[in-house]
Amino acid sequence: MAENCRVSITCVYCMLAQRNPPSPAVFPVVRCVLRDLTGFHWLQDNRIKTAKYNAFTFLPTNLFEQFQRFANAYFLVLLILQLIPEISSLSWFTTIVPLVMVLAITAVKDATDDYFRHKSDQQVNTRQSQVLIKGMLENEKWMNVRVGDIIKLENNQFVAADLLVLSSSEPYGLCYIETAELDGETNLKVRQALTVTSDLADDVSRLADFNAEVICEPPNNKLDKFTGTLYWKDNKYSLDNEKMLLRGCVLRNTEWCFGLVIFAGLQTKLMQNCGSTKFKRTSIDRLMNTLVLWIFGFLICMGIILAIGNTIWEQRVGSDFWTYLQWNKLTSNAIFSGFLTFWSYVIILNTVVPISLYVSVEVLRLGHSYFINWDRRMYYSPKDTPAEARTTTLNEELGQVEFIFSDKTGTLTQNIMVFNKCSINGKTYGDVYDEFGHKVDITEKTPCVDFSFNPLRDRKFRFHDSSLVEAIKLEEPLVQEFFRLLALCHTVMPEERNEGELVYQAQSPDEGALVTAARNFGFVFRSRTPETITVYEMGQPVTYQLLAILDFNNVRKRMSVIVRNPKGQLKLYSKGADTILFDRLDPSNDELMYTTSEQLNEFAGEGLRTLVLAYKDLDEDVFDEWMKQLLFASTSLDNREENLGALYEEIEQGLMLLGATAIEDKLQEGVPETIACLTLANIKIWVLTGDKLETAMNIGYSCNMLRDDMNEVFIISGHTSLEVHQELRTAKERIMGPSREKFSGDPDTEKTDIYSSDSVFEETIISEYALIINGHSLAHALEADLEQILVDVASAHIGVGISGQEGMQAVLSSDYSFAQFRYLQRLLLVHGRWSYHRMCNFLCHFFYKNFAFTLVHFWYGFQCGFSAQTVYDQWFITLFNIVYTSLPVLAMGLFDQDVNEQYSSRYPNLYRPGQLNQLFNKRKFFTCTLHGVCTSFILFFIPYGAFISAVRGDGSQISDQQAFAVTIATSLVIAVSVQIGLDTNYWTAVNHFFIWGSLAVYFAILFAMQSDGLFNIFPNQFTFIGTARNSLDQPVVWLVIFLTTVVCIMPMVAIRFIKTDCYPTQTDKVRLLQQATRRQGPQEQNLRRVRRTSSRRSAYAFAHQQGYGELITSGKNMKVTTSSTSTCPLSSPEGRPGTRGAPDETTTEGETNTTGFKREFDQNKDMMVEDLEAR
C-alpha cells in the first residue's frame, strides 16, 4: 500500500483565517497520515500569487483604483459635464486629453510592475522539486507540491516550502542553509533533523513508510520561531525552528537532505511576511492634498461670483436680447441662467486644479532617486556597493530631517573586532614599552609578535606585546587556562577547507576575535561534535567532553560551558560582563577583582569592549545531581526558561577569576566628522545600542556626540515611571532655565551669533547638553509621553540601511541604503536638501503658472457679460500644461541647485530652512498664488487696454477676439518661461533645451493649428484660421507682448533684488560667496582633533541575542551572524550642538589617536559678505 501512497499532513486548523490567530496557549493539531495520491487535493498547495491583475481584471481594477484619487474623479465629473451642451463652452477633448494622458502613464507603470510580478510568480511556481510519489522520487513543479509531501533537496537548491528536516547527507542529520532571501544574512546557518528521523537517511522505502502526527503552531510570519511536537511510534519529540527549513532558504555545503512539507504556498513564513507595505507620505504630500482642496474651494467661489454676476447681468441687460435670441422660457430665466453659468465656469476654470501635479511630482522623485543611485561619491569600492534609493516617495523628506535614530554596532562601527589587550591574574598585556620603560603608542610601524612557532596561526592576526607569547612558552598555568577558556567557551563552528586552513563561523564578531586570539597563542580550536571539542594545545590535540552549555541571553549576560578534560576533571568556564561575574566570584578573589577592575577602567578609557573570564572546578556528585535537574527542566513544558535560568544561576557561583579581555571595535571612517557636521545642521542624533550604559557613553565620546566641554550630560537611570518622570523633568528644567534667563523666555534658543546676522561663518554655542537613557528607563519613558522629549521617536519614518558585516537585513527593510555611515552626510545635506529645494521651487512655479493661466478667464468674464466665453483657443487650453510649460518647470525641479555640493556640505546651516519648512508652506502657497493672480490681471488688462485703440500698419482695426487671445497666450507662455529662467540658479543644457525648445514648440504649433491646411481638414476644430500670421506680423502686437511680459516680470525682479540686498538669507550669502570664489575652487574646512579620555567601563563582548548552546549540544553547527538590539539611546543636545574643541592645552596639531575634534577656520580664507559687496 505504501508504494501507492505518499505522506500527507491533515491540518485541522490550517484553514483558519490569519486575521484570527489562536491564543498562544492553543496549538493546532496536524496529523501525518498515509493518503492516496488522487485524494486529499483540498490540501494546501504550493502555488503563490503576488500579482494584482490579469488580462481581464486589469482595466476595470486599475481604473477603479485610479479614480479613487480625488483629482482623477474630479476631472471625470468635469468630462461628463462637458458633454452637456447647455453648460459647456469647451470641447470635451480639452479635459479628456490630459486626463487620458495621466491615466495612461499611471496604467502603463502599474501594468509594467504587475507584468514583472507575473513573470516572477511563473518562474517560482514552475521550479522543479523531487517529490516522493508512489515510493519513487519524481520531478514535480513547485506549485503542485502539497502539505504532507516528502521532498528531496540537493546542494545549492532553493527550499520549496516550509519543511521539517528528516535526514541529510551530513553526520547527525545536519544541513547548512543560507537565509539571505529571508533576513539578508549571508553567513551559513545550521539545521538538524531529529535523531530518530535522521536514521531514515536516503532510504526511499523507509521514507515512504514514514507516518506520524504533528502538533504545531498555525501559519504565522515569525521567521525565528516554530513550536511543535512530532508523535511517531508511540513517542513524542519536541520540534523547534532549528528543525525547520523555510521557503526561500538555499541548501549549502550539504549533498542532499529530505524534508516533510509543513506549510506550503501562501501559508509559508516567507509569504506570511509579504503583506502590503505601509505607504509613506511626506509632509509635502499631506500639504498638497490640503492645498488641492483649498483650490477646489477657491474654484467654487469663483464660479459662484461669476454665476451671481451672470444672474444680475441677465436681469439688467441680457433680458433685452431674450426675444431676439428666441430662447425658451426656462433658458430665459435669469436665476436658471446663473445656475448653468456656474457649471460652465467650473468647467472653464478647472485648470486651476492641477491634474498633472501628482504625475509631475512622481517624475521628479524618480529623477531624484536616480541621482542618488548614480552618485559616485556614495559608492563604496571595496565592496562594490553603490548607494540605492529603494523608494521614490521620500526624497524631499531627506531635506527636512530633525532627528536621527541610529544603531551602534555595524552602523557607527565597523563591526570588525580586534583582540587588543587582556589582563591575566592582575597583569596587563598588550601595551608596548621602550627601552626606558615608557609606554609608546602603537602604529602601523610597530613590530608585531612573531607567531611562526604556530603552524595553525591566523596570518592576519596582529599583536604587539611579546611578553604574552613568552608567558605561553613558559607554560604559566593561569595564562594557559586563560586561552584554554577562550578556546572552549563559545559557540563558534570551525570549517577546515584545506589542511591547517581554518575558517571560523562565529555567532558574533566578538566570539570570532576571542577564538582567533586563542588560536594564535597556541590554543587552536580545531573541531567539535555535539559531545566533544577538540583543541590543539601548543601543537598537541586534546579532546574535551562537552557536558553542557549554559547559553547567553539578555538577562544572564554571560555564557558558560561545562567540560571534562582528558584527566577526568570537571571544569566550568564562564565569560561575561564584569558587573555580572564579579557578583558570582568566590570571596578569595576580592583583591584580584579590585586590581582587574582598575585595569578594566583603563581599557574602558581607551574605548575598548571588555569581558571578564572565570572558571570553577566541579564536584562529580554535585554535578550528577545538577544534571538530573537540568534534564527534567529542559523537557518540561511549563516555565522552561525560568527553571533553566535558576539551575544555571545555582552552578555559576563561587567562580575563580582568571582575567579580562579588551576588544576594539573601530569606528567607521568619518563618523566623528559626519556627526559633527549633522549637529551643525541642527539635527539631533540618538544612538540606540544593546550595550550597557558605560559602553553607550564611551561610544558617545569616541564619535564626538559627547564632549568634555558640554555644559552637562544628563543620565536617566530610574527604575520606575515616577523616577524617570522626575529625572526628565529635572533635566528639562536645567536645560531650559539658563535659556530663559539669557533669551527672555524663548525656550528654543540655545545659541546666539557673536557677530552680526550678516555673518555666514561664525557662531558660538551658549549651552550644550546631552541626554543618556538606559534600557529599563527607556521602557518607562516610552510608555509615558514624558515632557514630549521622546515624541519624535514615533514619527521617524525614513529608514536608512547600511550594508556591513552584519548582513543585509537592515538594507532589505530600508528606504535608502549605502555602505558607510559617512555617506549619510551627503544623503541629507546634498541630495536631501537639493530634493527639498527643487520640489518646493517646482510647486511654487506650478501653482503660479496655473493661476496665471486660468484666472484670465475670470477677468474676461466681467467683460463678456459672464457668458462663460473662453479667452484662449481650445487647443491652447489643452496643450498649455502638458506641452508648452511642463518641461521647463520639470527641468527646474530636476536639476536646479541653489548652491553646489561643496558648499552644501561646507555650510550645514543651509539645511535649516527644510527643517523649518520655510521653502513651501501655506504662506508660500498664498504668495505664489497671489503672484499668479496678479500676473493674470496684467496679462488680461494690458492687452485689453492696448487693443481698444490699436490699429494695424494700414490703419485697420486689430481688436478682434482671436487676435486678443493669441496676444494673451503668447505673453503668458513667454512670461512664464522668463520667470522660470530668472528663478533657475543652475543652468544645464537640458534647461536651455526645454525652455527655448518649449517656446519654439509653442510658435510651431500655433502657426500649424491656425493654418489653412488644418482648417480645410477639420473646420469645426481649428477655427482660428490665419490669426497667428495676421496678428504676429504687426509691431504693435509684439510691443504689447513685450510690455506685458516686462510688467509681469519686473515687480518680482525688484522685490527679490531688494530682499537679497537688504534681507539676505543664509543661502543668498553662500551663493554670493560661491560666485566670488568659483574660480578658486572650494575651500575645505580644517578639522582639528582633540584627545579625550574617559573612565567609563565598556560592556561585555557578546552578541545581544539568545545564544546557541542548545544547538551545539544537540549537534547543530553554529554558523550565524550578529544582530543588535536597541535598548539605550544616546542623545545630542536639544538645541544645535557646537563644535568647540577641548581647552587649548589639550589640543595638539596632527594628533590621530583621538575621539573628538573641533572646527577651526583659516582666518586668511574667511570672507564676509560685506567684503564681497565692497569689492
From TrEMBL:
A single GO cellular-component term from the record reads: plasma membrane
The protein's required cofactors: Mg(2+)
Please state where this protein is localized.
Membrane
Q: Which Pfam families match?
A: Cation_ATPase, PhoLip_ATPase_C, PhoLip_ATPase_N
State the EC number(s): 7.6.2.1
Q: Which residues bind Mg(2+)?
A: 407, 409, 792
Q: Which organism is it from?
A: Triplophysa tibetana
The similarity comment for this entry is: Belongs to the cation transport ATPase (P-type) (TC 3.A.3) family. Type IV subfamily.
Note down the stretches annotated as region Disordered: 1119-1175
Q: Where is the P-type ATPase C-terminal domain?
A: 811-1065
Kindly give the PANTHER family that the UniProt entry links to this protein: PHOSPHOLIPID-TRANSPORTING ATPASE IM-RELATED, PROBABLE PHOSPHOLIPID-TRANSPORTING ATPASE
GO molecular function per UniProt: ATP binding; ATPase-coupled intramembrane lipid transporter activity; magnesium ion binding
The record's active-site residues are: 407 (4-aspartylphosphate intermediate)
Stretches that traverse the bilayer: 67-84, 90-108, 291-313, 333-359, 842-862, 874-895, 925-951, 963-982, 989-1009, 1036-1058
Q: Which reaction does it catalyse?
A: ATP + H2O + phospholipidSide 1 = ADP + phosphate + phospholipidSide 2
Specify which residues bind ATP according to the UniProt entry for this protein.
407-409, 511, 552, 575, 609, 689-691, 792
- Write down what this protein is called: Phospholipid-transporting ATPase
Q: Which keywords label this protein?
A: ATP-binding, Magnesium, Membrane, Metal-binding, Nucleotide-binding, Translocase, Transmembrane, Transmembrane helix
Write down the CDD domains for this protein, in alphabetical order: P-type_ATPase_APLT_Dnf-like
